[in-house]
Design goal:
The chain is built from twelve helices and 13 strands. The chain is α/β, with parallel strands linked by helices and 372 residues long. It has a seven-stranded mixed β-sheet with strand order 2-8-7-6-5-3-4, sandwiched between helices. It starts with a strand and ends in a 5-residue tail after the last helix.
Length: 372
Amino acid sequence: MIYLDSAATTLRKPPAVAQAVAEAMEHCASLGRSGHSAARRASEVAYACREAAASLFGAQSEQVVFTFNATHGLNIAIRSLVSPGDRVVISGFEHNAVLRPLHALGADIVVAGRRLFDRADTLAAFDAAITPGTRAVVVTHVSNVFGYVLPIEEIAARCRERGVALIVDAAQSAGILPVSLSEWGADFIAMPGHKGLYGPQGTGLLLCAAPPKPLLFGGTGSLSELPDMPAFLPDVAEAGTHNVPGIAGLLAGISYLRRRTVAAVAAHETALLSRLCRALEPIAGLKVYRGVHQSGVVSVNLAGMDCEALAEAMAQQDVAVRAGLHCAPLAHASAGTLQTGTVRLSLCDFTTDAEVDAAAALLGKIGAPVKF
């Protein structure tokens, strides 16, 4: 299979990830629950993962909370800061993991910046929208549909200057672009474990500048005599049994990234994206959504062919892509593709030149008989 759906999950991972999961299944019990060797080993794995993540993302180890995915982390963050009626500024490229929790809370949602790949417009729109009375800014670092890299450093600076809370959705940037809790001054940064960090599905991280409000309540292995959740990090946000095998796999994925370096991954994906887009642009009738500030994600549409049909035609040739609205209707509305959706091709550190060449050749072959 030619796998070009890493924006959904990285199917290809370092071999050490699966090995770590299997070893944890056999040798690790639940962390923080007992003093025997299997429990201690689980605690050591979890601590090592927190330390590795903290080093990679400009945080302290206790500020690293384990979650099920980025959506879980965003719900914790949003519900910690936002109350019904609060004014919250978001970008025009947010995932439903941001939009739906805010809608459910009854927040006053202000959308800032709708022009694709236009960082000046995005920043100007945020500059105007972050007014007195704004409770929080919730913004994606990279669009999951188009790979548009938003000016997160500048947006973070505006939030710091104006004393506005900041939540960053790093679902498409963690492990691919620099992400830093301390440098950005963010209140929370949410990320999945199963995308750019090369961990298993069902894992994620929430970086917390301060303790959040609990989303789940239950056992933590600490302060068990109290009816309330412990008020300190990370326990306040980690009720119940941890996914220790997943955490072990996530540690292996992060360890791979630290050896490989985020800069090297970014350079590889940037080169692949340029190669792919050069091959796609001559295809008649193929619209390629390309910009200067773009990560390893690109969307396309083929004139005269439904995006789902195009993705299915590629799947029949064992090329894996994703079609539709990608859980991000706001991004599609901003780009003018809400009615059509797009076909998304997304890369990772294990994608090769030959694979992007073959995918482009297949798109050219599929598009050849299309009549206009």
